[in-house]
Every structure is written in C-alpha cells, then in structure tokens.
Amino acid sequence: MPWKVCHATAFEPEAHLVKGFLEHQGIPCLLESRRFEMDPVRTGSLGTIRILVPEEWVPVAAKLISHRAPRPRVPRARVIDVDFRRRRRVSPAARGSRPLEP
C-alpha cells in the first residue's frame, strides 16, 4: 500500500495534532520527519514534518484538514460609559434614560 503526503508542517506539535485528528477520524497515518535536529534550522525541506496517509485516503484526509483550519475570531467592540463625576460605570439601562448633569 503506497503512502502519500496529505499535509506538511514545520512545527512538530502541529504535526502530532493533525496526526491525532486524522487517526481519531479512522484514517491511518505516519509521520515522516525531515528535520535537521540542530536548531534553528526550520526552513525548506530540512524543516518539514510530513503526514502520510494511504493513497486512497488522501482526498478524505485533505478535506478534513482543510475544514479543521480555525476561523478568525473578530472581537466585538465594547464601549464602557463612565460617569467621571461619580467615578463609576454607568449601567447599560441608565445610559439612555438619564440626561447628563452640567
């Protein structure tokens, strides 16, 4: 059974996470490290760790990995109203109901 590369990374923790994720889905995996073990070499082919799966599993594994990528979280803007004369926060209910004193 020939093994093909479905994912490659320069980071060892990521390689183990992807391998564990695929194995959890029932896909057999192997890791092939091409790292040169003297730091800080992590570029090019000397720094990659390849995740190998059986040839017939490559499309399934590639699809699972592509759907696993985290979506960027957009932080919501939050406004905090402060009444500096009383040195405390204004509650959201009181923001519109109470006019500011001069």
CATH architectural name of one domain: 2-Layer Sandwich
Round the mean pLDDT to the nearest integer and report it.
77
Which strand order spans the largest sheet, edge to edge or round the barrel? 1-3-2
Structural class: alpha+beta
Low-confidence spans: pLDDT under 50, at least 5 residues? Answer: none
Gap between N and C termini, in Å?
Answer: 81 Å
Q: How many beta-strand segments? A: 5
CATH class designation of one domain: Alpha Beta
Largest sheet: 3 strands, antiparallel
**Percent in strands:** 15-25%
Specify the helix fraction band. 10-25%
- The Rg value, from CA coordinates, equals 26 Å
Q: How many DSSP helices?
A: 2
CATH topology of one domain: Alpha-Beta Plaits
Series of H and E elements: EHEEHEE
Shape: elongated
Description of the structure:
- By secondary structure, the chain is α+β, with helices and mostly antiparallel strands.
- It has a domain at 3-68: Alpha-Beta Plaits, CATH 3.30.70.
- Helix content is 24%, strand content 21%.
- It has two helices and five strands, in the order βαββαββ.
- The strands form two sheets. A three-stranded antiparallel sheet has the order 1-3-2, with helices on one face. A two-stranded antiparallel sheet has the order 4-5.
- The longest helix is centred in the first third of the chain and has 13 residues, at 12-24.
- It is elongated.
